[in-house]
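Fig. S4 source data, part A: sequence.
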Amino acid sequence: MDKREYDLILTIVNRGFADQVVDAARGAGAHGGTVFYARGTGIHEIEKFFAISIQPEKEVVMNIVRHEETQVIMHAIVDAAGLNTEGRGLAISLPIADVVGIAHFMKLTDNKKARD
């Protein structure tokens, strides 16, 4: 069985908190990420304001990281974004079977392995 090299960390937070996630991930070893906007649809997401339904906007941060760095990066994200507090967001990691288009990241990884 092949050892997986990369994981995808998906972090969903309330709008305005993506920078905290990105900064924490970078500080813990991630090389970058992608942020996009979303809208929550859970039971806690719909709020009433003067009888008008408001669906809070979300930010989703995607980071491709080396598998062995996943836990450290996730813990940094949890601490920085306060994900242990109810309603602040969530982070999950998913295994990546194959990936293309991250040649710069692979070069950094290969250089690091050569130095170790």
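Fig. S4 source data, part B ends here. The two ends are 24 Å apart (CA to CA).
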